[in-house]
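Let's study my pick:
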Amino acid sequence: MADTESPAPDAAAAATVDVAAPALDAILRPMHNSAQVLSVLLTAICLVCFIAGRAILEHTFDAHFLLGVALVGMSGSGLGALTSLLARYAAGFELEDGTRIPAGAEGEVYHRRIAFCMLMRPVLGALVAPLLVVGVTLFFKQHEEFKGSADAVTVVAFIGGLYAKSAIDAAKTAFKVVFRA
């Protein structure tokens, strides 16, 4: 009897997994789809903004310079959002009730709530990159040389966008420390 009873719990567990698998798949499928759509959108935003921004910086007029910088900044920030999204997607998912799939997934995981935030991150790059470019020009005695180089402005704007979220977080912390005293 012991030989026939030991497979029964395994069979019951397998049946439970089989029954739960379609329900779990129905929950996870939309999350997979939203993460994949979001990654395609972020990639498109990065590419379009970088190409358009770089083209504007190559053939700039003063009125269009800021637009080119903002677009390249959006590209950098979009890349930051894309890498964060892909890392979360690879780590796992978090359901509405807080359950993590796979069980025991650690660190940041993908959740539907984060999708809108990821899509808005390129906007931070559009705001921070021009500030960084203007800030860098202040350190040049002849800032026309810097502003006249599409390569230099592109690199600074892209890095400004890439680290836009970190720069904003650091600025918030600095203001709290300075004005708390």
Helices lie at 2-5, 7-58, 62-91, 112-137, 143-147, 150-162, 164-180.
